[in-house]
Sequence to fold (102 residues):
Amino acid sequence: MAVLTITKENFEEKVLKADKPVLIDIWAVWCGPCQMLGPIVEEISEAHPEIIVGKVNADEEMELVQRFKAAAIPMLVLMKNGEIVKKSVGYKTREELEAELF
Fold:
């Protein structure tokens, strides 16, 4: 499944009203660990069709960054039924993320 771009404009529709759990990657272009995590997030998206995967650009979506209280990036947030159920901060391998988040 393709990774969605999450913005404040589509957040309610794509995340809060989603019929599946949503994994959100909060990242920035200038962030080295974010760049390393990007391909892993893509792999997770392809390997787990039971979830929706989206990305929030921290530089462009400060309102969402504040909503998630993202003091450090990369941050992954798993949401179910519009509620945050798990968070992961920093670079981790795919295996570490899957064990931590799922």
In short: The chain has four helices and five strands. The chain has a mean pLDDT of 95. The helical segments are 11-16, 32-47, 62-67, 94-101.
